[in-house]
Write a structure and sequence with these properties.
Blueprint (H helix, E strand, L loop, with lengths): L1 H15 L6 H13 L3 H30 L5 H19 L7 H26 L10 H15 L5 H7 L5 H28 L4 H9 L1
Length: 209
């Protein structure tokens, strides 16, 4: 999932010149545009924010519906939805260049919805322990665990009540997520540069599988 997010974010930027996973940046841009009296851009930013939010809401609704009915495939259905949306993006995106004023905002909204959907999927599945669409929290957790790993527990008296011990499993998990996001970003940028929107099709296939 982190790999998919990396590809979508980097490839999406090359496709429409805008990141669609980074809500902090979008919210900051809304503030900047508001200060500059650029109301059209403000409305655009709010639309992207709401699209991401609706993606997360969709995940929560489907997961809760499936959980109440004890459906074991509650997350599989969401992955299918994400796969279909990426399939649509990959198949029709290359044919939308003739209508850029309309299609670029539509693609941005679609990708924001997909990233909101995916971020909520992993959040629900991991009980709010893991995120895959943005790396700020992941890198923060890596830094915390690295500190614990190298911390010098010198005082025996202090060790009795406050021994500092790294969670190596958590560190490996977050390093792996970071690595997959980075690799996805590199591959996404290269593939979208070389073949365009069609690069989203392998992502869709992987989610179908």
């Amino acid at each position: 999932m982190a790999f998919v997010a990396g590809v979508v974010n980097a490839g999406g930027f090359l496709a429409i010149a805008r990141y669609t996973h980074h809500m902090s940046g979008i919210i900051s841009a809304i503030g900047d545009d508001l200060a500059l009296n650029d109301l059209i851009s403000v409305l655009g930013g709010i639309s992207l924010l709401l699209s991401f939010l609706f993606g997360a809401v969709t995940t929560a609704i489907i997961v809760n519906w499936g959980h109440r009915r004890k459906i074991h495939s509650e997350f599989a259905l969401l992955l299918l939805v994400e796969a279909i949306l990426l399939l649509v993006f990959g198949l029709v995106g290359a044919n939308l260049n003739l209508y850029l004023p309309l299609t670029v905002p539509a693609i941005a909204l679609l990708l924001c919805f997909v990233m909101g959907l995916q971020n909520a999927i992993v959040t629900k599945a991991s009980r709010a322990e893991i995120r895959t669409t943005h790396m700020t929290g992941v890198i923060t957790n890596i830094g915390i665990e690295l500190d614990k790993l190298i911390y010098w527990n010198k005082s025996q008296e202090a060790n009795l009540s406050g021994y500092v011990k790294a969670n190596r499993g958590k560190l490996k998990t977050h390093l792996f997520i970071f690595g997959m996001f980075l690799i996805g970003g590199i591959i996404g940028a290269i593939s979208f540069k070389k073949v365009g929107y069609i690069a989203a099709l392998p992502l869709s296939l992987s989610l179908f599988c």
